[in-house]
Amino acid sequence: xxxxxxxxxxxxxxxxxxxxxxxxxxxxxxxxxxxxxxxxxxxxxxxxxxxxxxxxxxxxxxxxxxxxxxxxxxxxxxxxxxxxxxxxxxxxxxxxx
Length: 97
Prior knowledge:
Elements: E1 5-9, E2 15-20, H1 28-42, E3 47-52, H2 61-69, E4 78-84, H3 88-93
Parallel strand pairs: 2-3, 3-4
Antiparallel strand pairs: 1-2
Helix pairs in contact: 1-2
């Protein structure tokens, strides 16, 4: 998937990476989470999701949380989220406000 938010499988692993550009276009996060749902639906076992926020993205947290909570966050094939990055946004996303 292309755009300002990318979703890619990690070859040889039960993992998917979601990476954000610094500037995120409206709607790209929701589209990425919908694409992530396809990975879950096709998975033969639980998947780890690596949330790559190292580019310090600027996005609407309410839109992002809404998109995540409405599907992928509750999916039975989600093993665990791993949030990568430094600064306030990764701390909020990982629940470490």
